[in-house]
Amino acid sequence: MTDVDLAALSAAAYTAAPTWAADDVHAVRTGALIAFRDTVPTSMAVWWRDFDAVPIHNVELGWCHEGFFDGAQAVLPAILPDLDGPVTVTGHSLGGALAALTVASLVATGRAVARLVTFGAPRAGGSGVARCSARRRCDSTASATSRCRSCPGCPTFWSTPYH
Questions:
Q1: Contact call for residues 53 and 155 (beta carbons, < 8 A)
Q2: Could you list the residue range(s) of the whole structural domain that residue 99 is in?
Q3: pLDDT below 70 — which residues of the chain?
Q4: Rounded to an integer, what distance in angstroms lies between the CA atom of residue 111 and that of residue 145?
Q5: Residue 79 falls within a domain, yes or no?
Q6: Which of 17, 37, 50, 119 could disulfide-pair with 13, CB 3.0 to 4.6 Å?
Q7: Is residue 24 part of a domain?
Q8: Domain containing 10 — which CATH number?
Q9: How far apart, in Å, are the Cα atoms of 97 and each of 62, 84, 85?
């Protein structure tokens, strides 16, 4: 599976019926691939998730963007029973942040992840999230973005996010 294929799957997550949904978080599964949907421009709940950037601390993952963390945790209980082997997880923008936190949570609970690939994702958490994603259970991670993304402690008006 190439990054172009993963980008196409991320794009399809906007319109495909979700395999799993919790609140405003939608994830689509195709075989061993999971893609998270990005911000829906007409949904205030999704916009609130983007701007709910107060850092919160999780015992396993460390400091995380609260809105992204809450979204990933909301859908995780629905995803866990359906996993039967390593998966590749992807997403664009908000979907990428949700993918990163979902992968970190999967790895922290001992689940195997084949790959994490995000496209233009904001930083979802600190070093704890990075450590969980970098453990051996996640074979590779990649992020495609043109500039440094904003972090939980740095609101977007203090940085210049790009897609």
A1: yes
A2: 3-152
A3: 133-163
A4: 27
A5: yes
A6: 37
A7: yes
A8: 3.40.50.1820
A9: 15, 23, 22
Which pair of structure tokens corresponds to residue 126? 């600190």
**What pLDDT, on the 0 to 100 scale, is given for residue 144?**
56
Kindly report the pTM of this predicted structure. 0.81
Q: Look at residue 72 and tell me if it is in a domain.
A: yes
Q: Quick check: 22 and 87 in contact, CB under 8 A?
A: no
Are 89 and 115 in contact by the 8 Å Cβ rule? The answer is yes
Q: Closest Cα to residue 108, out of 80, 139, 137, 77?
A: 137
Tokens 């990075």 found at: 130
The predicted pLDDT at position 145 comes to 47
Q: Dig out the tokens for 60 from the structure.
A: 């396993």
Residue 157 lies in a domain: no
Tokens of 27: 């994830």
